């Protein structure tokens, strides 16, 4: 078997299936073990106990799929043409959803394409044994992608590419064929620290180290408990994930738009009014998020996130009324966040009222006696 020709064919077939880049690497992740163990020991994974439970497995892909000697790493762009970052983030009455989650869930789409790629390789080489992965097992997708030449590790810990930025998904195909491997690319973050500076909660505690416990994506997606109160004002109107570290990254000037229709924004999730989302009952939430990655956080966490955003919004009697109306029908966790939001809304309303009174008195003092 001409493995060099097969590797070239695999990259061509991958491109035909919609992957913007395909790389091949060995599966030696021993260099990642110390970093991973240190990170876990510091507790930065928060409540994601599954990361610690499968820590050893994460650096040994051949234990996930026995016989594996190579990983085919792929990436797929997801940035929509009408991302509308500024429009949503600058309006505190709208809910901001991370751009990766505006369309359909990427897991099934990419896994299906990877399975098709595996089947195509098997047609050319019947000895192939493969297994596709898209966030579906304890596998270190970013280190594999970096070893396969798909980009370098940015200081925000995401994979960056010189010509495509970081707006892409990653997936892997573990295989048993000793294909020639690709080489990592040069790291090009240099002295830039924009992502560290811009992070609303300062979750990037040092270059290449993310404290998930502070990360808005973790707080609004992975955390199933109460969001720590000191962090709530910093979340702003971000109700599912956060893109700030990517938005500020200079390399994302070169980001490529997706041509996948499934990643196009759903109208009901693109710059939605917070009050409109708050009005959804659980049945509506499940229907409106069908086929979306948002659904997996569940209705309670959805309401929790919305309550925080509403507490961060400018004082509004409609928001206060909506929060009060729903409070008695929520779980204790959601009630806690509603109470926090109400306190902020009411205190701001009192401030506004006092300012109006002072203004009226000042005007009255300046009017003629017979006015």
Please give a handful of descriptors for the protein shown:
4Fe4S_Fe-S-bd, 371 residues, four-stranded antiparallel β-sheet, alpha+beta, QueG, single chain, two-stranded parallel sheet, 17 helices, 44% helix
Give a quick summary of the entry.
With 371 residues, this protein is an alpha+beta fold. Helix content is 44%, strand content 11%.
**Main β-sheet description:** 4 strands, antiparallel
Taking pLDDT < 50 over at least 5 consecutive residues as the criterion, the unreliable ranges are: none
Give me the count of strands: 10
Rg estimate, integer Å: 24 Å
Strand and helix order = HEHHHHEHEHEHEEEHEEHHEHHHHHH
What best-fitting shape do the alpha-carbon axes yield? elongated
Characterization of the model:
It catalyses: epoxyqueuosine(34) in tRNA + AH2 = queuosine(34) in tRNA + A + H2O. The protein has helices at residues 3-16, 30-41, 49-53, 55-58, 61-64, 85-89, 106-124, 141-147, 194-198, 216-222, 232-235, 244-247, 274-278, 282-288, 298-312, 317-327, 332-366; strands at 21-25, 70-77, 96-97, 130-133, 152-153, 159-160, 168-175, 204-206, 209-210, 238-240. Helix 15 packs parallel to helix 17 and helix 16 runs antiparallel to helix 17. Strands 1-2-7-4 form a four-stranded antiparallel beta sheet, sandwiched between helices. The model has no long low-confidence stretch (mean pLDDT 93). Helix content is 44%, strand content 11%.
